[in-house]
Amino acid sequence: MNRACVIGWPVEHSRSPLIHGYWLKEYGIDGSYTKEAVRAEEVAEFLRGLKERGFVGCNVTVPHKEMAFAIAEEAEESARVVQAANTLWLEGDRLFAANTDTYGFMTYLSHSVPDWRAHDGPVCVLGAGGAARAIVYGFLDAGVDEVRVFNRTRSRAEAIAEQFGPRVKAFDWTNRSDGARDACVLVNTTAAGLKGAGTLGMDFGGFNQDCVVADIVYVPLETEFLAQARAQGLRTVDGLGMLLHQAVPGFEKWFGVRPQVTDKLRAVLVADIEGRT
């Protein structure tokens, strides 16, 4: 029986066991997926002892993603670019790492709004953390000509621009509304709006009507950011799809089956979110 888990501190909030548990049952696989609360000072020892603990791999949630990347012996480009890993697996005795946030976000965006490039404008990203890096990487890989990064601390946005090259440009946070009006996609990668806390203070007036507005926050499913965009007639993409799709590659690595993200699975997660918020 293959065993996998998610590690974090805290880890109780993680919905990964709900997703992977659903798939294990759906595909009749004799396996398990559990939550493991691991303190920062214990991460290295835990990951290096995965095999001895009986695990074939794990997911990693905040605040351990950077540490997981550093400890892995082999890393896919997805993790190297972001300098963080959320999915680990063993091949023999070697620990491999990937960051599946890029895959999760871009897959759900393409499924939800296949013509997200209907308007030939830039992609605009709010925030400059690990999720922003993963999403910037995804859009560049998709061939977008220009990505604009807006962050409260401009130097962090400039660091992303420096890392990815001339197609990525740093902007002041105060310019986030005016600088995004011609966007084909606008993405919030910050925690603003999580559980209703904080606001992004966006003015969606005058935005191109083909613009797609996406949020990686999924609690609540419709954040204030998305509600305001929808009120202006813009198309919106919630954060739950990214969570569901980023889980696919890991499950395939650990359990040997590539699972499907279905409406039924999404309904299970929606019920859980609405029951706990």
Verbal overview:
There is one protein chain. The protein has helices spanning 16-26, 43-48, 65-71, 77-82, 101-112, 130-141, 154-164, 224-231, 240-246, 248-255, 263-276; strands at residues 2-8, 31-37, 57-60, 74-75, 87-91, 94-98, 123-126, 147-151, 168-172, 185-188, 212-215, 235-237. With 277 residues, the chain is of the alpha/beta class. The protein folds into 2 domains: 2-100 and 247-276, Rossmann fold (3-Layer(aba) Sandwich); 102-239, 3-Layer(aba) Sandwich (Rossmann fold), CATH 3.40.50.720. A 6-stranded mixed sheet has the order 2-1-3-5-6-4, with helices on both faces. Strands 9-8-7-10-11-12 form a 6-stranded parallel sheet, sandwiched between helices. It is globular, with a radius of gyration of 19 Å. The mean pLDDT is 97. Homodimer.
End-to-end C-alpha gap: 34 Å
Helix content: 25-40%
If you compute it from the alpha carbons, what radius of gyration comes out, rounded to the nearest whole angstrom? 19 Å
Principal-axes geometry comes out as globular
Structural class, from helix and strand content? alpha/beta
Q: Please give the number of β-strands.
A: 12
Number of helices: 11
- What portion of the residues fall into strands of 2 or more residues? 15-25%
Count of folded domains:
2
Which residues sit in consecutive blocks of at least 5 with pLDDT less than 50? none
Spatial strand sequence of the major β-sheet:
2-1-3-5-6-4
Mean pLDDT metric: 97
CATH architecture of the largest domain: 3-Layer(aba) Sandwich
| CATH class (first level) name of the largest domain | Alpha Beta
The biggest beta sheet reads: 6 strands, mixed
Subunit structure: Homodimer.
Domain SDH C-terminal: 239-261
Active site: 65
Catalytic activity: shikimate + NADP(+) = 3-dehydroshikimate + NADPH + H(+)
